[in-house]
């Protein structure tokens, strides 16, 4: 089902069956699901005389269209896999009630404006189920099942070189369809991950994709495909009124639903998950007066992350090796999963920090920390295996997400993985500032008072309600740095119940100080209202 260069001769399969299925993004659509989709869209023939399926597989959608009570007059299917093409072609040979043509081709090699010679005029429906696989997954498999190399999302700088550049092949198919069918009276309705639908909406908001209206109908991908992802039927009408369809996109709970359960849309160019819940709190939608930071990125966890009880004993890496390195470069570590589980306890992990800032030359470690340098050099192969291009041209054992803010004695942190975010005030351990991995975001703080009051404000019901209206819980990382940058803490501090805020802050303050291994008597004073403003203003 997935597009890739058509072979000149017989196909030689060099991947295992499971890997091959992933390579092709092969999730054949069950006939019952096809029927539900077509019923939701129908009556087909009364609205669209022409239908295109860009990745038709064995022809389940084609057969559903032909057998429907209102079939179109002309259907085109495109397929790359030989066996799937033959099955779909057999369906075409057995059909005389509808003009059906199946083409064996790589979708990305076709120009849909030129290469599909339609005989019928009139509105066009594009329907189907494109591959559910990302370019990163295909890279792991060593697959060539990709569109031509390009910056598909048109990202800039480091975003184009890191995780932000990862995209589903379905996204590339959507963009191709929207761009090349802009001159048609086209409706595109494809099954895809809900994250793909959002990605296309965001791309349309930034660019010039001609979306006149859009809707999302959720369905249970686990039931139909045994896929643990949030999925939908994403429907878009191409044509005049560009951008109008982005202001309010209704979201339906299932195919039979006639009333939307919510609506997503753009407010001042930024996507909102639930417009109705968002409106009462729109006043607090950014910018945040504090700068959120992301945790450490090193992509060498087996070497850099250590098991450490922070008491007497040895450090061990993830390979079980015991090591003895200079402690000045070892810091307590909390990961995103630690913050999701609940109240933060004393870290049991540690991390090696090779730099004080991004780009710093690490070769001085050979003299300043010879045992650490020998350990890192002995595991140089692990660093050489790092695939991200951000490490090219960097000093040996370089990392990212490091700067003066990393060494702040107090921090307010949240996991990017949590679907119900909880913010945590974190202090130093034995005088060592706590580090976070790159699934976490944090605010550096000057004092326990600042950390306590900021944590209390972020955990206020009003702040959490705003976050709830903004986040997409099905995302791989529901909480992002961009989302956190939208929390106007100054506006929220003037809106929340101050008495309740200070009660929470006092609890956080007491917990922070109780967790310190060495506490001075004068550090245990109760937090006062006077410290509130200074705590949230940088």
State the helicity in percent bands.
Answer: 25-40%
Shape, per Cα inertia axes: globular
Instruction: State the helix count.
Output: 21
Oligomer: single chain
Overall average pLDDT: 85
Largest sheet: 10 strands, mixed
Percentage beta strand: 15-25%
Structural class: alpha/beta
Please give the order of strands in the largest beta sheet. Answer: 3-2-1-4-5-7-6-8-9-10
C-alpha Rg, in Å? Answer: 27 Å
Give the uncertain stretches in residue-range form: 1-25, 138-145, 157-165, 517-538
Task: For the record, give the distance between the C-alpha atoms at the N and C termini, rounded to a whole number.
Answer: 53 Å
In total, how many beta strands?
20
Structure explained in plain terms:
There is one protein chain. The protein is α/β, with parallel strands linked by helices. It has 21 helices and 20 strands. The chain has a 10-stranded mixed beta sheet with strand order 3-2-1-4-5-7-6-8-9-10, with helices on both faces. Strand 2, helix 5 and strand 3 form a beta-alpha-beta unit. Helix 2 crosses helix 4, helix 7 (about 170-180) crosses helix 8 and helix 16 (about 450-460) crosses helix 20. The model is unreliable at about 1-25, about 140-145, about 155-165 and about 515-538 (pLDDT under 50).
Concise summary:
The protein is α/β, with parallel strands linked by helices and 538 residues long. The radius of gyration is 27 Å and the shape is globular.
Features:
single chain, 538 residues, alpha/beta, ten-stranded mixed sheet, six-stranded mixed sheet, 20 strands, globular, disordered N terminus, disordered C terminus
């Amino acid at each position: 089902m997935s597009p890739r260069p058509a072979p000149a001769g017989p196909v030689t399969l060099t991947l295992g069956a499971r890997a091959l299925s992933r390579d092709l993004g092969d999730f054949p659509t069950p006939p019952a699901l096809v029927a539900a989709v077509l019923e939701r869209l129908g009556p087909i023939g009364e609205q669209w005389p022409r239908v295109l399926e860009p990745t038709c597989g064995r022809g389940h959608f084609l057969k559903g269209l032909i057998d429907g009570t209102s079939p179109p007059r002309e259907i085109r299917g495109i397929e790359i896999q030989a066996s799937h093409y033959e099955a779909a072609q057999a369906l075409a040979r057995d059909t005389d009630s509808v003009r059906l043509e199946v083409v064996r081709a790589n979708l990305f090699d076709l120009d849909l404006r030129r290469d599909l010679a339609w005989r019928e005029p009139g509105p066009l429906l594009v329907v189907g189920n494109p591959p559910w696989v990302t370019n990163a997954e295909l890279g792991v498999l060593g697959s060539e099942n990709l569109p031509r190399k390009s910056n598909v999302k048109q990202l800039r700088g480091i975003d184009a070189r890191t995780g932000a550049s990862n995209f589903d092949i379905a996204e590339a198919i959507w963009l191709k369809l929207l761009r090349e069918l802009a001159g048609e009276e086209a409706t595109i309705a494809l099954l895809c991950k809900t994250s793909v639908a959002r990605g296309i909406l965001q791309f349309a908001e930034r660019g010039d994709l001609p979306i006149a209206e859009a809707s999302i109908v959720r369905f249970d991908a686990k039931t139909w495909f045994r896929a643990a992802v949030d999925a939908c039927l994403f429907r878009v009408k191409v044509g005049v009124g560009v951008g109008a369809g982005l202001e309010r996109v209704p979201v339906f709970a299932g195919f039979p639903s006639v009333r939307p359960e919510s609506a997503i849309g753009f407010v001042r160019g930024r996507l909102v998950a639930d417009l109705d819940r968002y409106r009462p709190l729109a006043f607090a939608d950014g910018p945040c007066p504090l700068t959120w930071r992301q945790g450490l990125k090193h992509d060498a966890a087996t070497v850099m992350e250590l098991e450490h009880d922070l008491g007497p004993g040895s450090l061990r890496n993830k390979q079980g090796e015991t090591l003895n390195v200079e402690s000045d470069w070892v810091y307590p570590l909390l990961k995103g999963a630690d913050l999701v589980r609940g109240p933060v306890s004393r870290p049991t992990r540690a991390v090696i920090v090779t730099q004080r800032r991004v780009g710093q030359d690490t070769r001085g470690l050979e003299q300043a920390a010879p045992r650490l340098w020998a350990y890192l050099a002995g595991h140089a192969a692990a660093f050489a295996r790092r695939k991200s291009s951000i490490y090219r041209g960097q000093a040996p054992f370089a990392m990212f997400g490091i700067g003066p803010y990393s060494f702040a004695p107090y921090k307010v942190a949240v996991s990017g993985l949590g679907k119900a975010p909880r913010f945590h005030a974190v202090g130093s351990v034995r005088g060592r500032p706590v580090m976070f991995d790159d699934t976490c975001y944090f605010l550096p703080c000057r004092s326990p008072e600042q950390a306590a009051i900021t944590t209390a404000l972020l955990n206020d019901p009003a702040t959490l309600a705003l976050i709830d209206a903004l986040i997409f819980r099905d995302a791989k990382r529901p909480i992002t740095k961009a989302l956190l940058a939208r929390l106007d803490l100054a506006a929220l501090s003037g809106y929340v119940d101050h008495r309740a805020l200070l009660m929470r802050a006092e609890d956080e303050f007491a917990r922070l100080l109780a967790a310190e291994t060495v506490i001075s008597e004068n550090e245990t004073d109760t937090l006062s209202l006077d410290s509130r403003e200074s705590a949230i203003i940088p």
